[in-house]
Structure to design on (277 residues):
């Protein structure tokens, strides 16, 4: 079993097979952490756990754009029945990460450069609104939260960790949209971000991109903290369009379907083999 699945498989297996009743010490019961399988199963349905794991793999690039996901094989790999996998596929389609083709199957979503252009243009408009809104409404606690996220990006930049930077970057922008308090905007925004996942990963991998992107985020946060709505909105619009420009520079290196596995880590090669055979 690939180590990629070590955590989710443990979380999805029936609780009775793994966990004894809680022991007592005096009058106090032992407690479990937020990431313990019991806690996860109490807080999430099985289809949700399957969805979260597939989403993680897609956004991490372990499942490539254009790759087919076979229901029975995914169910076997995660140690669940096919029903939760089927429900997870439907949820992933709604979020923009996979496409369901009638009589053909389920595929990781793949978009053209032209469609990515359109998404970046939409994001630029939405982000400009977000910047304006937060420059008017962000609280000191909100600003501290956003500063911590920029600090995570700076740490990832210092060690050139693209994956950590991407996670911090996505978290920063997602949190800003959350702070507007507009649930409909957040739903639309998250779908757009999901659809761009392949291009964003490839764009950030370019030499010199992380320091430039980090500077842009610092400037955006500075303008929000200084209560400059117009300038903050403009900076966010320019940041998104700069990302689009970087995407075009990287687009010639983005493969049509699946990158070579020649230099991939063993865990990824094993996972790919099991999903394809």
């Amino acid at each position: 079993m690939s180590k990629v699945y070590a955590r989710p498989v443990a979380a999805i297996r029936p609780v009775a097979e793994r966990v004894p009743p809680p022991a007592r010490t005096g009058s106090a019961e032992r407690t479990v952490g937020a990431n313990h399988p019991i806690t996860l199963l109490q807080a999430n349905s099985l289809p949700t756990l399957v969805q979260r794991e597939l989403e993680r793999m897609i956004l991490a690039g372990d499942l490539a754009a254009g790759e087919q996901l076979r229901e029975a094989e995914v169910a076997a790999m995660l140690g669940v029945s096919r029903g939760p996998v089927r429900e997870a596929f439907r949820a992933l389609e709604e979020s923009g990460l996979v496409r369901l083709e009638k009589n053909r199957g389920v595929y990781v979503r793949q978009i053209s450069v032209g469609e990515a252009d359109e998404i970046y243009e939409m994001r630029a408009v939405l982000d400009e609104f977000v910047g304006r809104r937060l420059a008017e409404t962000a609280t000191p606690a909100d600003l501290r939260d956003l500063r911590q996220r920029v600090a995570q990006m700076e740490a990832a930049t210092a060690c050139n960790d693209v994956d950590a930077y991407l996670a911090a970057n996505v978290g920063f922008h997602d949190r800003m949209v959350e702070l507007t308090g507009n649930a409909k905007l957040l739903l639309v925004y998250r779908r757009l971000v999901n659809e761009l996942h392949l291009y964003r990963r490839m764009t950030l991998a370019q030499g010199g991109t992380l320091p430039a992107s980090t500077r842009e985020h610092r400037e955006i946060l500075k303008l929000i903290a200084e209560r400059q709505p117009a300038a903050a909105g403009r900076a966010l619009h320019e940041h998104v369009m700069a990302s689009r420009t970087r995407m075009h520079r990287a687009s010639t290196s983005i493969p049509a379907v699946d990158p070579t596995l020649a230099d991939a880590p063993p865990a990824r090669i094993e996972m790919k083999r099991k999903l394809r055979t």
User: Anything to note?
Assistant: Strands lie at 24-25, 28-29, 68-69, 98-101, 105-108. Residues 113-253 form a domain with the Four Helix Bundle (Hemerythrin (Met), subunit A) fold (CATH 1.20.120.530).
